[in-house]
Specification:
By secondary structure, the protein is mostly beta strands. About 5% of the residues lie in helices and about 50% in strands.
Length: about 300
């Protein structure tokens, strides 16, 4: 008998009548209006870096709050990544919320499935070249999707439908069980997403990392990306405000040296159309995405003067 499984579509509810819309003209229209050429997608429209005072030893958890001020339909490809890249013992991981997740049903069925909104958790190999097999991925449910590939550096990933909307969420990576196999020690880390409305956290899945005791490097990043898929190869840019909270490692806010905004570019040309500003918002960082414009190159990178709560 051929066994199949269903994939639950993670469509958010219809917006209330007074909700702000994310719609704006197409990137082609906006680019033409200001006389710029669009690069190929994906577009990293915003990068944020927090520089810590020192690395954090005995890493067990990362928590990042993120607020999205309006609903983003699955007709968009928006990647809100509170964990743009993290590094433990030289091993990178990353993830966040996507308006249109996709992936394989399992290790043998590589048909690409598009269930809509969801969460994602990925890791790379230490040299970004050695494949990371799916034996390093543990799904949290039958609706999870997986992938192991090399088109963004050798990686393995787990994704799961999650009907996120305009709300505040906490993206969590937590250390779980340690195991010994073939004389080597490995540890599993689990991704969960919590809503400000309470209730049980949505577990996305787990990834296995080589080692037992981990040190989190002395920085952290977040990004917002408009990406491309075979379902939506040329995605529009939504108008939206996204706020990232202060990084918390091992349950504590990390002492910072500084925070920096960066709008990526390649070979002196933007890697994305300039369509956002990154601004301090108390101790948080606010990303305001809207119409395409021409950026003053002196503002390609700038410091963010954050004010810790209670200071």
């Amino acid at each position: 008998m051929l066994l199949t499984r269903s994939v639950i579509m993670a469509e958010p509810p219809v917006q209330p009548a007074n909700a702000e819309s994310c719609e704006q003209p197409s990137p082609e229209e906006m680019a033409k209006a200001v006389g710029v050429t669009l690069p190929h997608q994906p577009w990293h429209v915003a990068n944020i870096w927090w520089d810590f005072q020192k690395p954090i030893e005995h890493f067990t958890s990362l928590e990042m709050d993120v607020t999205i001020d309006r609903d983003i339909p699955s007709t968009y490809n928006l990647y809100v990544s509170p964990c743009g890249v993290a590094n433990i013992n030289g091993l990178q991981f990353y993830g966040g919320l996507q308006s249109n997740i996709n992936g394989w049903q399992n290790a043998t069925n590589h048909e690409r499935i598009f269930p809509g909104h969801g969460g994602i958790f990925s890791r790379r190999s230490s040299d970004k070249k050695t494949p990371v097999g799916l034996e390093n991925v543990r799904v949290a449910g039958d609706d999870c999707l997986v992938e192991s590939a090399g088109y963004e550096g050798a990686f393995a990933s787990v994704r799961r439908p999650f009907a996120w909307t305009r709300d505040t969420y906490t993206y969590c990576i937590e250390k779980g069980a340690t195991e010994i196999a073939d004389g080597k020690t490995n540890a599993w880390f689990t991704c969960k997403i919590k809503s400000s409305g309470g209730g049980a956290a949505r577990e996305i899945g787990s990834l296995r990392f080589e080692g037992d005791d981990f040190t989190f490097w002395a920085r952290h990043s977040a990004f917002v990306e408009v990406y491309s898929t075979e379902k939506i190869p040329h995605a529009n840019i939504p108008k939206v405000n996204i706020t990232f909270g202060w990084p918390r490692v091992n349950g504590e806010k990390v002492p910072l040296k500084k925070a920096t905004a960066y709008y990526p570019h390649k070979a002196n040309e933007p890697a994305a159309p300039d369509c956002c500003w990154i601004k301090p918002d108390g101790e948080n960082v606010r990303v305001e995405i809207g119409a395409i414009f021409v950026r003053d190159e002196t503002q390609r990178r700038h410091e963010l003067k954050l004010q810790p709560a209670g200071s």
